[in-house]
Amino acid sequence: MTGIEGPFWRAIAVFRVASLVYAVVLLARAGGYAHPATGWLVIGVMALWTAATVFAYSVTEFRGRPLLAADMLVTVGCLLATPFVQGPYQQGSLPITATWMGGAVLAWGVHGGRRLGALAALAVSLADLAARAAGASGPPGVEAVPINGVVLLFLAGVLVGHTARLAKKAEERMQQAVEMEAAGRERERLARGIHDSVLQVLSLVQRRGQEIGGEAAELGRLAGEQEAALRELVRLRPVEPAAGTADLRTLLQRYGSATVTVSVPATPLSLPAGAARELAAAVGAALDNVTRHCGPQAPAWVFAEGDDGTITVTVRDEGPGIAPGRLEQAAADGRLGVSQSIRGRVADLGGTVTMVSAPGRGTEIEMAVPAPESSDVPHQNP
């Protein structure tokens, strides 16, 4: 057995065997009850099923709904055989299965949590009540209802199911922590390699461009910007999911400059922190394209709005526009700025990108992403 569930299933197997031995002892001490042959036949069925479940519990692939359903059927069948073995019901007596019937409840609880454990306890309790009613010599009274047994079954199903579910969640979180640690080590390894190669080259280009001047100075400036962005990307920090929400307006207003006009509404544009950063990065990629294809002094406009559970950001310029087929050709040539930096990011957020452009008429890129309800996650400053 592997995983955190293994000890639970081993414990149920031990409980099954011990309960079977207890049922055998009770049957032997009672002299086989009223019908010994039937009693030992039921014990034989219980023994065979115990052996089958002990084996099935040890194989992960077998621990599913079919096994649990069969387990419940066998348990209920053995319980209902009680009046045919013991005869008329005697106050305070245990059924032929004794405590063995609790094994099915425990198995359902471990597999499906406290809810399925409670349902299994209800099914077994109803079967026990039906068996007692069938063996009662007169009208059933309150004293004939096995309250203690019913309560114990429900407690076992709920508590064991709840504990098993908590253990599963703990195992999942531990696995996530291990993966995060491995990702952090990989990020550190990549950071060392990039620092020893790409970052040093970019730094050299920046310095030489400033020394040479002219067009080389502009090249050096761009190299410096890329160096700073790359250093931020590989900075050693914990790799973990973004928590809380961020106001997209704050992230977009950072792009405002003498050539870029940013217009945002007066009310917050709340998104999960990670989604807000990704959408802002897509806007940054669109503005980079404006600078690259229209010139560093070309004006651009960024408009953001939220409506009907959707946040829409539009980036517009008055540049030369995009010729038909140019984006497809760029993707085929391996230049994935628009397809990955913009469309890919927005698609990962479950949004859409609409691009309107024509030669000589500028370009308009509209990015729309779904916005969660403000109460879904707590607010977090970006």
From TrEMBL:
| GO terms for MF | kinase activity
Which residue ranges does the record assign to the Histidine kinase/HSP90-like ATPase domain? 276-372
Name the residues that span the membrane: 7-28, 40-60, 67-86, 147-167
This protein's UniProt keywords: Kinase, Membrane, Transferase, Transmembrane, Transmembrane helix, Two-component regulatory system
Q: Does the keyword Transcription regulation apply?
A: no
Q: Does this UniProt record's set of keywords contain Kinase?
A: yes
The alphabetized list of GO BP terms reads:
phosphorelay signal transduction system
Q: Which SUPFAM superfamilies match?
A: ATPase domain of HSP90 chaperone/DNA topoisomerase II/histidine kinase (SSF55874)
Q: Report which superkingdom the organism of origin falls in.
A: Bacteria
Q: Which InterPro entries match?
A: DUF5931 (IPR045975), HATPase_C_sf (IPR036890), HATPase_dom (IPR003594), Sensor_HK_TwoCompSys (IPR050482)
Ranges for domain DUF5931 come to 3-172
Gene3D superfamilies in the record? Histidine kinase-like ATPase, C-terminal domain (3.30.565.10)
Q: What is this protein called?
A: Signal transduction histidine kinase
